[in-house]
Amino acid sequence: MSNEYSSLRACIYQTESDLRRFRQLVVNTVMATDIVDKELQALRKNRWDAAFSKESPPSAEKDDDRKATIVIEHLIQASDVSHTMQHWHLYKEWNE
After folding, report:
1. How far apart are CA 53 and CA 70, in angstroms?
2. Average confidence score pLDDT of the chain
3. Are 41 and 49 in contact (CB under 8 A)?
4. Is the CB of residue 35 less than 8 Å from the CB of residue 81?
5. Which has the closest alpha carbon to 74: 37, 40, 33, 39?
6. What is the pLDDT of residue 56?
7. 34: part of which helix (H) or strand (E)?
8. How far apart are CA 25 and CA 69, in angstroms?
9. Which H or E run contains 69?
10. Of 38, 19, 21, 25, whose CA–CA distance to 71 is shortest?
11. Which of 6, 20, 44, 82 is 20 to 30 A away from residue 35, measured at CA?
12. 28 Cβ partners below 8 Å, 6+ apart?
């Protein structure tokens, strides 16, 4: 990677593990906008069920990360879908 955005990267992650975690979060977030793929929807639903299951043990840091990730995915998906519900004049203004 170039040094152009090194300060920004330093704010986002400090270790290789943080970088992998951030990259996976970005990939999952982008993939959450694909509402047509039934397999991805099923995987997302399974991750939600696993993260928020009543049978799961008390929350650890890894579980908190899993919950945060799946909530972000659902928020992005909802915002992506709601984008199509805006008034026509706004849609044209932002998409032309």
Report:
1. 13
2. 85
3. no
4. yes
5. 33
6. 62
7. none
8. 7
9. helix 61-83
10. 25
11. 20
12. 69, 72, 73
